[in-house]
Amino acid sequence: MRFTALLPFLLGFSVVCSAQVRTSDLTQVEDPRGEVELTVCTQNLENYGVLPSVQRRVKNATREDIIDKEAALIKRFMTAKCDVIAVQEVIGKNEAEVRTVLAHLALLLQRRTNRFFDVRPGTSIDGVINVGVLVAKDRADILNTLSYSRVELPKLITKQRPRFFARGPLEVQLDVKAVGERIRKTVTLVIFHLKSRAGGARDPTGLEWETYRMEEAEALRRIIDNRHAKSFGSGEGIFIALGDRNSHFDTASSAILEGVLTLKAFQGKAPCRLSKRGIPLCLKGTSLPERLFSALITDPQASKLPGTFQLNGVFSWIDDILMPAESLRFALATFDNNGDYNSGVVYEPREASDHSMAYVKLNW
Question: In what order do the strands lie in the sheet with 357-362?
Fold first, then answer.
């Protein structure tokens, strides 16, 4: 399995990467496909919302803190020239409040770029943390949205109580407008924010909720397999799963989301068990063909970056952009170089979030 390939580089990495993005990421190279069609970004906003709601989670938060955060976020979005922004950790007690928060962020972005953004909020069963999306109206129309917040998760242990997604994933179907004489294309996003490690001391397994994330990953992969078989089979439409995994790319939940393993591989006397860090330890021959591939971890340039989140001086890749092989060809940096994707990470300004922003640029 490829999970161990980057561990010596990532673990213990304590120096912040000074470059925001790859040198070639934001410059247009000569390509018969022409200009980039769509730039898709993902950003955990780190407790972003209206001040009273934020203060229920961050007691000493001030209006000035939020203003500084907003300015930093807008700068990140402009750096990558985001057309679509998948967001996580929007604070709001209901869908109406989340929509208001996203609309305000869209207005700030419009004032700086003169681009108008449509917004859609997700729904959450905890009434606190939500996902959502901003879509530039000059590049795409939102056709449909669907929340998975009420999907019951498969169980790792049969007798345990039913669980649901900690924050409901949001599916967004986009009709991307043509550039010049090229064709319009359907792009489908599934925005996820898996269970965090917060309150890990309450997890009876001692794994900081990794088994919860494994169940979420299994449910999400099953939904994707069932609903988007055509994207895997033909590549006529482009499919992207993106967001905050809340675990490093070498963990069991990551492997399950990518399709390398299934939840069944950990049940009963199955061939896999978990290390104390949530890494799958499996018998030889257990792995399955990968279904979703990271446009970041598999990219030669982006994979050299330290990660998207830093805790106690150690970086990890907990934010990701995943695509089936049939869709990945639309993320190529150049038309003739398989395996080199037009993706990257934006680290600055730091005031934006404790998570970096990841992006991928699509072309056809």
Answer: 117-121, 129-136, 84-91, 38-48, 357-362, 343-346
Residue 170: exposed, middle, or buried by beta-carbon count in 10 A (0-12, 13-18, 19+)? buried
**What are the residues whose beta carbons fall under 8 Å from the beta carbon of 47, sequence distance 6 or more?**
54, 57, 58, 61, 89, 91
Please report whether residue 94 resides in a domain. yes
d(CA 225, CA 223): 5
Structure tokens at 180: 């010049």
Predicted local confidence at residue 21, as pLDDT: 54
- CB atoms under 10 Å from CB of 52, counted, come to 10
Q: pTM of whole model > 0.85?
A: yes
Residue 20's pLDDT is: 54
Token pair listed for 156: 């790792």
pLDDT in tens, 36-76: 999 999 999 999 999 999 999 999 999 999 999 999 999 99
CATH of residue 144? 3.60.10.10
Contact, 120 vs 147, CB < 8 A? no
- Residue 272: enclosing H or E segment and its boundaries? strand 272-274
- Domain for residue 230, yes or no? no
The residue type of 350 is R
What backbone phi and psi angles, to 5 degrees, belong to 302?
Answer: -60, -35
Count of the separate structural domains present in the chain: 1
Q: pLDDT below 50 — which residues of the chain?
A: 1-19, 23-24
Contact 156, 195 (CB under 8 A): no
Domain boundaries, position 53: 2-12+35-189+238-248+294-362
- Residue 208: inside a domain: no
- AA letter at 167: R
Longest dimension (CA), the chain: 58
Is residue 222 included in any domain, yes or no?
A: no
8 A C-beta contact, residue 117 and residue 104: no
Determine the pLDDT at residue 109: 98
Residue 127 is predicted with a pLDDT of: 82
